Amino acid sequence: MKRYTIIDSPLGKITLQSNQLGLTGVWFEVNTTLPSELGERDDSDALLLAAKTQLEEYFLGIRNQFDLPLAAVGTPFQMKIWQALTTIPFGETWSYQDLANAIGNPKAVRAVGLANGKNPISVIVPCHRVIGKNGKLTGYAGGVERKAALLKLEQGQ
C-alpha cells in the first residue's frame, strides 16, 4: 500500500511517497514525473516523517547524506543509473558522460540521460548533480531553477 505526505521546503512543496519497502518518490510541486495516483495520505507515517526530517536537515545545510530505505520502481537499466547517482559526492557534479562511464557503458550517454530524467526520488537520489558535458545545467523534472538552487546549496552558497 502506498502512502504519501506533502511537506514545505525552501524550494516549494514536496510530495513524499512510500510503500512497505521504502521511499518510492520525492517530487517537487512542479514535476514532470509526479504520478497521478499517490495512495493514501498519511502525515504520521514513520518513514515519511524520517524523510521529512532528513530533507529539512539537508535544506538547513546540516545533512549531506541520506539514510533512508529506497524502493523506487523502474527498469533494470534505470535502477542501475539511479544507484550510480547515489555515488556522486555531495557538492560535486558529473556529466552524463561521467555517469555512463561509471556504469561501464560509455556509449549509453543518451539512455543515461533518459533514465536520469525518470528518477522518482529527487534530491535524495541526486539526479540534480548531473549536468551537460559543457558544464551547463540541463533539464530537471522539478525545474531548472530548482536544480540550480540545489547545486548552490550543496556548494555552500
TrEMBL record:
InterPro entries: MethylDNA_cys_MeTrfase_AS, MethylDNA_cys_MeTrfase_DNA-bd, MethylDNA_cys_MeTrfase_DNAb, MethylG_MeTrfase_N, MGMT, MGMT_N_sf, WH-like_DNA-bd_sf. GO terms for cellular component: cytoplasm. It catalyses: a 4-O-methyl-thymidine in DNA + L-cysteinyl-[protein] = a thymidine in DNA + S-methyl-L-cysteinyl-[protein]; a 6-O-methyl-2'-deoxyguanosine in DNA + L-cysteinyl-[protein] = S-methyl-L-cysteinyl-[protein] + a 2'-deoxyguanosine in DNA. The active site is at residue 127. Residues 3-71 form the Methylguanine DNA methyltransferase ribonuclease-like domain. Residues 76-155 form the Methylated-DNA-[protein]-cysteine S-methyltransferase DNA binding domain. Signal peptide: none annotated. It is found in: Cytoplasm. GO terms for biological process: DNA alkylation repair; methylation. Transmembrane segments: none annotated. This enzyme catalyzes only one turnover and therefore is not strictly catalytic. According to one definition, an enzyme is a biocatalyst that acts repeatedly and over many reaction cycles. NCBIfam families: ogt. HAMAP family: OGT (MF_00772). Belongs to the MGMT family. This is Methylated-DNA--protein-cysteine methyltransferase. It comes from Vibrio scophthalmi LMG 19158.
